[in-house]
What we know:
- It is a single chain.
- The protein is mainly alpha-helical.
- The protein has 3 helices and no strands.
- It has helices spanning about 5-25, 30-55, 65-100.
- Helix 2 (about 30-55) runs antiparallel to helix 3.
- It starts with a helix and ends with a helix.
Amino acid sequence: MELITLIGAITVFVLAIFLGFELITKVPATLHTPLMSGANAISGITVVGALILLKDSTSIPFMSPELLAFSALVLATINVVGGFAVTNRMLNMIAGKRRGK
């Protein structure tokens, strides 16, 4: 990878971190559950992409594409499961408040 391409990729990554942090901290509580569902969908796409990468890993010129794909698969799966657990807990809290009235 060329140095300019690497610097550009790192710059986009750092800007995405700052933008993501700013967006998440400004989300009201009423929108948190729908946004978690969207994040779960994106992580599901990451899981599918990692599985495809594991299948076709020999065509990628990288030192260890299997390791990269496996780590992406594990992290995205943890994110999906955690996201569903948090969403389920929030929905149960809302349902509990409605039952209490």
